[in-house]
Amino acid sequence: MNKQYTVIGLGRFGGSICKALSEAGMEVLAIDINEERVNEFSNIATHAVIADTTDENVLKSLGIRNFEHVIVAIGDNLQASILTTLLLKELGVKKITVKAQNDYHEKVLQKIGADRIIHPERDMGIRIAHQVVSSSIKDYLELSEEYSMVELVATAKMDHQTLANLDIRAKFGCNVVAIRRKEEIIVSPKADLKIEKGDILIVIGGDKDINLLEKQMLADS
Ligand code: ADP
After folding, report:
1. Which of 81, 134, 151, 202 meets the CB 3.0–4.6 Å disulfide criterion with 138?
2. Which of 34, 57, 84 to mutate to test the pocket of ligand 1 (most atoms within 8 A of CB)?
């Protein structure tokens, strides 16, 4: 059986999650307090329900605790977001992901035990900034405060060089975990693999090490 998800709050963020999950064939219960929003999703989600999720009895009657993962995407109404998260936690939902509006909101969500907290605007802002400042960074994902995963475009400097020649791990302390070459993905590339200009290197490493790698190996020559 497919995984079952609930998305609470069908604004831009919750709505996009709901659509993507439904398109991936998942069972999705879509909930919003606003009737128009719910109507928009009646043909997209498996079930779309008008409900106020700050009401414990409503959550119980929807059988919310049987869902594997509940995503709380209530926007500006922090009180509703916090209360909903608290009730979900009390009802024993296994995994709760919540969209935070600001750092204070995040702190409260952490305290009440949200499993994952997302700041879509902030996180996307950081990703875009990394892509904008560097011509060789195609995408960027923060793994922790110090470590990241980046997609780097191989420049002429790396063309026809093997990974062994480049010795990225020893020189920069970074790991090339995969390479994207046109449609193909080469996972855990071997040391004798020859890089081609335009390959996308998917690299994990410390932020400082990635910076150095980028400066020395990837600057356009
Ligand atoms: P976004 O920034 O993702 O567009 P919005 O603030 O537009 O966020 O969307 C949040 C959604 O959450 C709205 O559609 C709103 O009706 C819904 N919402 C707010 N409070 C509740 C609640 N108590 N129960 C269910 N849905 C709610």
Report:
1. 151
2. 34
